[in-house]
Write a structure and sequence with these properties.
Helix content is 35%, strand content 22%. It is built from 18 helices and 23 strands. The chain has a 9-stranded mixed beta sheet, with helices on both faces. Strands 5-2-6-1-7-10-11 form a 7-stranded parallel beta sheet, with helices on both faces. A 3-stranded mixed beta sheet has the order 16-17-20, with helices on one face. Helix 5 packs across helix 6 (150-163) and helix 12 crosses helix 18 (526-540). It binds glutamine (GLN).
């Protein structure tokens, strides 16, 4: 029967619960157990799709088209296990489910309450859509003590009661700060956090302590004593050079042994850690460095482009290269000369996904400079759409070519499908249909034989993940091609442009999808592998 591991966080936020959950999942998966990882988010939004990435970080998209919390990205990267819609739930979703049932009369006149109705719904989610998994790891978002997470903590307390200790495990991640003035590690915040959990009826079985550096046995014993946990179940999570060190770090301290002990599983289970060891060995010996300018709007926070960051890192390692990212705020390069001064120093230029007209001028400038200086260019989603607009607007008479995302235009080269008329050029501006009109999740594209992208993938047919509302208006196919753009990836029905490239440039690629969402340390994405390789060529020139 499936065993459930619940991971909570205490003291402060941003301790890396997602990384720890992913690392544990990775270790279990490497022991050949079947694992699922789920995220329970206490906020009221139905999903993070409409949340500002600079506040909440990137929106991660699954193959089955769910807009989810970015922790699901970590889960996939660490384990290669493909997340599903059913792996992320929010308070908003739970409540809307409960209220729907209340309106239908499903509660047969009883008073609808947080306990048991909301908690029942949470428990149902935790156990739903499983297929003989050995382990389900559930990360509870937020910090213990938050009002929002109370129903989730209550639900997992009930589950322990229902399923028993041998089927459930509570892991609590806390902070053990070092006070330099006192020259001491402080265990009090951890004690308080565990006390808070105890007050809710949850005694953690394992404590993971985030710490700047290794702390002594004394501090460990103190935590063990005050928190009612065996010494071996207090595990340190020290600062790491890279998040990918965490699985080995946890394994070294015997986390699996503790876990298997708890579940009464054979502790001699073989684990092959070679993949992680090889990956880290390469990471410690990177030979070269390249720089990539990422020109975007949310550049103040690299969390907004988490998967992109990671994908570049993975492909860097694949190429034995350190990738230095230079975040360029597109609003600061609206003057073409300034733009050139800033970007000419970089080995590559990347315009990532984005929304809205704001800041597009700088992104278009970046595309112009990549063409002028022949700097390798990768345009992702919005970046591809802008590359097409930049190109076509150089044609005589097409200066005003635009996207309907930016308002009224007589040349809707980028527009929503329902805005295309029969000849695909007639245009009705329609903003009434923004909600729920996104193309989300995995779609197939057919690659043009002999194209650059064909040789990158070494395939004729690919599947990649999408998250966008607007499309290239196929009615402008001739003009787009006339402007020097090669349409090298098309949807199977032949109507949607998925990939573009240029023959007058050493490495220029635009993709309508988000390749970064599928890159993992052990399977870096071919597009990024090729991009970094192109930057290395540029570096040696
Ligand atoms: N804003 C564009 C669209 O909706 C691009 C979206 C994106 O880059 N993810 O089509």
């Amino acid at each position: 029967m499936t065993k459930f591991i619940f991971i909570t966080g205490g003291v402060v936020s941003s301790l890396g619960k997602g990384i720890v959950s992913s690392s544990i999942a990775s270790l279990l998966a490497l022991c050949k157990y079947k694992v699922r990882i789920r995220k329970l988010d206490p906020y009221l939004n139905i999903d993070p799709g409409t949340m500002n990435p600079s506040q909440h970080g990137e929106v991660f998209v699954t193959d089955d088209g769910a807009e989810t919390d970015m922790d699901l990205g970590h889960y996939e990267r660490f384990t290669g296990i493909i997340s599903k819609k059913s792996d992320n739930i929010t308070t908003g979703k739970i409540y809307s489910e409960v209220l729907k049932k209340e309106r239908k009369g499903d509660y047969l006149g009883s008073t609808v309450q947080v306990i048991p109705h909301v908690t029942d719904e949470i428990k149902k989610f935790i156990k739903r859509d499983l297929n003989k998994e050995d382990f389900v790891i559930c990360e509870i978002g937020g910090t213990v003590g938050d009002i929002e997470s109370l129903p989730f903590l209550e639900a997992i307390r009930q589950l322990r009661n229902e399923l028993g200790k041998s089927k459930t495990l509570f892991i609590h991640l806390t902070l053990v700060p070092f006070l330099s003035s006192a020259h001491e590690f402080k265990t009090k915040p951890t004690q308080h956090s565990v006390k808070e959990l105890l007050g809710l009826g949850i005694q953690p079985d394992l404590l993971l302590c985030r710490t700047e550096r290794k702390f002594d046995k004394e501090a460990k014993s103190k935590i063990s004593l005050f928190c009612n946990i065996s010494l071996d179940s207090v595990i340190l999570v020290e600062n790491a050079l890279t998040i990918y060190e965490v699985p080995l770090m946890l394994n070294k301290q015997g986390l699996l042994k503790e876990l298997f002990n708890h579940f009464n599983l054979p502790s001699k289970k073989k684990i092959n850690l070679k993949l992680w060891e090889d990956f880290l060995k390469k990471y410690y010996q990177l030979k070269r460095t390249v720089s990539v300018a990422i020109v975007g709007k949310y550049t103040n926070l690299s969390e907004s482009y988490k998967s992109l960051n990671e994908a570049l890192f993975h492909s860097g390692i694949y190429n034995n290269t350190k990738v230095e990212i230079k975040w360029v705020d597109s609003k600061k390069i609206e003057n073409l000369k300034d733009c050139e001064v800033i970007l000419k120093e970089c080995n590559g230029i990347l315009v990532p996904g984005g929304f809205g007209k704001d800041g597009t001028l700088g992104k278009i400038n970046a595309i112009k400079i990549s063409k002028k200086l022949k700097i390798p260019f990768l345009g992702i989603c919005f970046g591809m759409q802008l590359a097409i607009l930049e190109s076509i607007s150089n044609l005589k008479g097409y200066k005003n070519a635009s996207s309907t995302e930016f308002g009224k235009t007589s040349f809707p080269v980028i527009s929503m499908i329902h805005e295309w008329k029969k000849n695909k050029k007639t245009f009705i501006h329609d903003t009434s249909n923004l909600g729920g009109s996104m193309r989300l999740g995995s779609y197939t594209a057919l690659l043009k034989k002999g194209s650059m992208v064909n040789s990158i993938y070494k395939k004729n047919k690919i599947n990649e993940r999408h998250r966008h509302r607007y499309e290239v208006n196929y009615g402008y196919k001739n003009e787009i091609e006339m402007s020097g753009v090669v349409l090298s990836g098309i949807s199977p029905d032949g109507n949607l442009v998925e990939i573009i490239e240029r023959n007058d440039h050493p490495w220029f690629l635009g993709v309508q999808f988000h390749p970064e969402l599928k890159s993992t340390p052990f399977k870096p994405h071919p597009i990024f592998n090729s991009f970094i390789k192109a930057l290395l060529n540029k570096e040696t020139k």
